[in-house]
């Protein structure tokens, strides 16, 4: 979960292939061929997709030079068409920590170079969607699920059930669709107090906010999310949907397991997890790459 605030080149030992490339890493140099991952491994594919150089050093003198002369220094790495890698000392591109942070979050070296020449807009704020519920219902049952309402896990389960023999059971399920968090925030139970506090808290975020500043803001946001009250309409919608699913299947397994307090606590934990450092860095990275900082829409968990 290490996040680098400046563009970083990592000299690595063994890479199994299951690792994630840390945010902020622009290149991974593996010490020797026997420590390198397969080209089709998870790590290699993610590196290619995110524009991160992943190279193996076959010449031990190169890694020895890096460790002896270049560790902790600004460097330039060049990988030529014949597969050879050259690494040499370079000048620090800039001193502005905000612009360096944006460069580290860029998903490609081309964008990193482009960001070097741009002026940082330190006053532009992030606009998170906390009110638009997309006209969603509180709860949807499996036959009404589609990719515009729920995530792939819920949808795949809903699509699988009709294809199975009747004696093969699947878990009973209902889902709170995309927009349900915003619907809860704008409900009469929460709009007056908690929505306004959450908006004021998140208004402090900027595209160039440091990870430490963002972490502090999100900790406050999580307090507000965990203080939300369960809308009575949501409770009734959940019970009705579970009743409907159980009646169709002849067994109210899901409804018998439902407990309002436990369900609401679990829902708030999912929503609160959206306001965390890793989701923020991932979204910030996407916004840097697309140039779209205006509409940062918060995703919704499913029940």
3D architecture notes:
- This protein is α/β, with parallel strands linked by helices and 303 residues long.
- The chain has 2 domains: 3-116, no CATH class; 128-297, ATP-grasp fold, A domain (Dna Ligase, domain 1, 2-Layer Sandwich), CATH 3.30.1490.20.
- The protein is 43% helix and 12% strand.
- It is built from 12 helices and 7 strands.
- It has helices at residues 42-49, 60-70, 97-105, 109-116, 152-160, 180-185, 191-202, 211-226, 232-249, 253-257, 260-273, 277-290; strands at residues 3-12, 23-30, 53-56, 75-79, 85-89, 128-129, 296-297.
- The strands form 3 sheets. The protein has a 3-stranded parallel β-sheet with strand order 1-2-3.
- Strand 2 (23-30), helix 1 (42-49) and strand 3 (53-56) form a beta-alpha-beta unit.
- Helix 3 runs antiparallel to helix 4, helix 7 packs antiparallel against helix 8 and helix 8 runs antiparallel to helix 11 (260-273).
- The longest helix has 18 residues, at 232-249.
- Mean pLDDT is 81; it is low at 107-123 and 288-303.
């Amino acid at each position: 979960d290490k996040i680098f605030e400046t563009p970083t080149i990592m000299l690595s030992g063994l890479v199994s292939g299951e690792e994630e490339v840390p945010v902020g890493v622009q290149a991974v140099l593996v010490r020797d061929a026997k420590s390198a991952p397969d080209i089709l491994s998870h790590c290699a594919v993610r590196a290619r997709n995110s524009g991160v150089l992943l190279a193996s050093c076959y010449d031990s003198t190169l890694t020895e030079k890096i460790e002896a002369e270049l560790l902790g220094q600004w460097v330039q790495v060049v990988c030529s068409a014949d597969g050879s890698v050259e690494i040499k000392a370079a000048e620090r591109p800039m001193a502005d920590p905000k612009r360096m942070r944006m460069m580290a979050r860029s998903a490609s070296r081309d964008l990193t170079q482009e960001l070097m020449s741009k002026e940082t807009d330190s006053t532009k704020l992030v606009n998170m969607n906390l009110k638009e519920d997309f006209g969603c219902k509180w709860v949807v049952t499996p036959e009404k699920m589609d990719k515009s309402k729920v995530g792939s896990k819920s949808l795949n389960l809903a699509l699988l059930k009709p294809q199975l023999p009747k004696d093969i059971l699947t878990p009973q399920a209902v889902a709170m669709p995309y927009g349900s968090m915003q619907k809860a925030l704008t409900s009469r139970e929460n709009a007056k107090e908690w929505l306004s506090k959450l908006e004021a808290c998140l208004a402090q975020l900027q595209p160039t906010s440091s990870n430490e500043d963002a972490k502090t803001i999100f900790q406050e946001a999580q307090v507000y999310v965990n203080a939300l009250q369960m809308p009575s309409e949501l409770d009734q919608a959940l019970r009705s949907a579970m009743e409907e699913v159980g009646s169709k299947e002849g067994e109210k397994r899901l409804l018998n397991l439902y407990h309002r307090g436990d369900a609401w606590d679990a829902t708030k934990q999912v929503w609160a997890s959206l306001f965390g450092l890793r989701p923020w860095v991932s979204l910030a990275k996407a916004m840097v790459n697309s140039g779209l900082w205006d509409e940062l829409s918060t995703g919704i968990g499913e029940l």
